[in-house]
Amino acid sequence: MTRYPLLALGASALLLQACMFSPGMHMDTDRLISQDSAENSMVEMVQITPKLIAQEQAVNRSMHIPEPLLQYEPENYVIGPNDALFITVWDHPELTVPGGQQQAEGANARVVRDDGTLFYPFVGSVKVAGMTLEELREVITKRLSQYIEQPQVDVNVTEYNSQKIIVSGAFENAGFLPVDSRQLTLLQAVGMAEIDEERADLSNLVLIRDGVTYSLDYDRLTSNNSNIGQIYMRAGDKLHMGLNDSRKIFVMGEVGDPRPIPYRTSRMTLTEVIGIAQGPSPTSASGKEVYVIRGVENLATEKATVFQLNAESPSALILANQFEMQPQDVVFVGAAGITRWNRFVSQLFPSASIIQAGAITGDSLRGN
C-alpha cells in the first residue's frame, strides 16, 4: 500500500492536468483541431507561407472603388437659403452698392431668405433657390432691361451657407464642410477635415450618399494606384472616419509587453505588431509557436482561422513583415519547451509540498 496516498493522488492529478493543458503559455493545437474531426472543429489551421502572402496581396490589390462614386460628376453650384449673394450691375452703383462705396462688400450682399426667395430693386421677389448663378444672372438681366438699356449683370456668392457635407469620427475638424462652387474631391474634403492620426482607423472610411453606405480602405486606396482622386463630394454627403478605440489587435503570450494595440490601418504587419509589444521574449518564447487567431468573434456562425508562423525559418522575418493584420486579430507567442517544463516543475513542487505536509500530519495523527 502506498505510504502517502494523498501525495500520490495529488501528483497524478497534476500530471493529468499537465498533459491536457501544457503548463505555461502554450497552445495545444492538437486539442483545437484533429484530422478526424476537421469538419466539426471550431478552427482551421493555416501555415503562413509565401504562397499565402501572395494570395492575400493579390486580393488587396484587386480592391476597387464602387462605380456609383466614380460615375458622379459635380454640377454647377445651386443657390440655396441663407447664401449671401453680391449682385453687380455695371455703371449703376446705386444698385450694386446702395449703401455707398465706403461700406464693405459684405454689407451690400443680399441674403437668400429661408423660403428661398430674394428681393432686388426693379426685379422684385424671385425664387432663387435651386437656380445656378448663371440662371439668376439671366433673370435679373431680363427684368432690369425694362428699366436699363442693355444692363450688364454679374452674380457671385460671398457666403456659402446652404449646402454642407457632414464629417464625423476621427477628424480634427469634425462638423460641417461648406459646399461651394469648386469641385470638391473626397481627398480635398479629408484634407480640410484633417485626420486625427492617433484615433483614426484609416482602413474604415465611410461615405454615405442618398442613404447608401460605401466603405473605403482609405489607407490602402491612397497608397496604391487607385481612382480615389476621382471621387467628388456632393451636398448632403456624410463622411465618417472610423475610430480605432473599438478595433484592436490583442497580443498575448511570451512577449515583452502583452496588451491590446489600437488598429490603425490595414497595412499593420505581424512584425510591426510584435515589435510594438516589445518583441518575443528572448529567454522564454518558442520560435515555432507564433500564431495569429482570426475570426473568434464569429464562432457561432463560422470557423476561426489560426495562422501559424515558424519564426525559426530563415524566411520568417520576410513573411511576418508581409503578413497584414486585421482588426480583432489575436497574436499569440507560445513558450519554449524548457520554459513549459520549468513552469510545470515550479507549479508541481509547491503543490506536492503542501500535499506531503498534509500526509505527514495525517501519519502523525495515526501515531505512525
Describe this structure in words.
The chain is an alpha+beta fold and 368 residues long. The chain is 30% helix and 24% strand. The chain has eleven helices and 16 strands. The two termini are 15 Å apart. Mean pLDDT is 80; it is low at 1-25, 30-39 and 351-363. InterPro entries: Poly_export, Poly_export_N, SLBB_dom, Wza_C. It is a multi-pass membrane protein.
**Low-pLDDT stretches:** 1-25, 30-39, 351-363
The CATH topology of the largest domain comes to: Outer membrane lipoprotein wza fold like
* Major sheet description: 6 strands, mixed
Which strand-content bin applies to the residues?
15-25%
Q: If you average the pLDDT, what whole number results? A: 80
SS-based class? alpha+beta
CATH class of the largest domain: Alpha Beta
Name the helicity range.
25-40%
Spatial extent as radius of gyration: 35 Å
The count of domains is 3
The CATH architecture term of the largest domain is Roll
Which descriptor suits the 3D outline? Answer: rod-shaped
Q: Secondary-structure element sequence? A: HHEHHEHEEEHEEEHEEHEEEHEEHEH
The CATH H-level superfamily of the largest domain is Outer membrane lipoprotein wza domain like
Strand order of the largest sheet: 1-15-14-16-12-13
Q: How many helices?
A: 11
| Spatial separation of the terminal alpha carbons | 15 Å
At a glance:
Belongs to the BexD/CtrA/VexA family. The protein has helices spanning 5-21, 29-32, 50-61, 67-71, 93-96, 133-144, 186-193, 218-223, 270-276, 316-322, 337-366, and strands spanning 43-47, 84-89, 110-111, 117-120, 124-127, 153-159, 164-169, 175-178, 200-209, 212-216, 238-243, 248-253, 260-262, 285-294, 304-309, 330-335. By secondary structure, it is α+β, with helices and mostly antiparallel strands.
